[in-house]
Structure prediction request, 60 residues.
Amino acid sequence: MSETQIHVIARQMLEMHGAGAIAQAAQKAQACESKGESDEAREWRHIADAMKMMRGPHQS
Prediction:
């Protein structure tokens, strides 16, 4: 999956699911990992990382 596709999916998930989107991506990565789909798990982790970057630093 290209970097552009990763960011498009990340943006769409954030818009649809808000703060819970990162947790959903992490759960999908774990599910893929448990089924032995390591490439797909890596993509979901990449999507989660992109969402964290888009969200920016934590505010207090």
Observations:
- The two ends are 35 Å apart (CA to CA).
- The chain has one domain: 3-55.
- The helical segments are 3-17, 20-34, 38-55.
- Residues 31 and 41 are 8 Å apart (CA to CA).
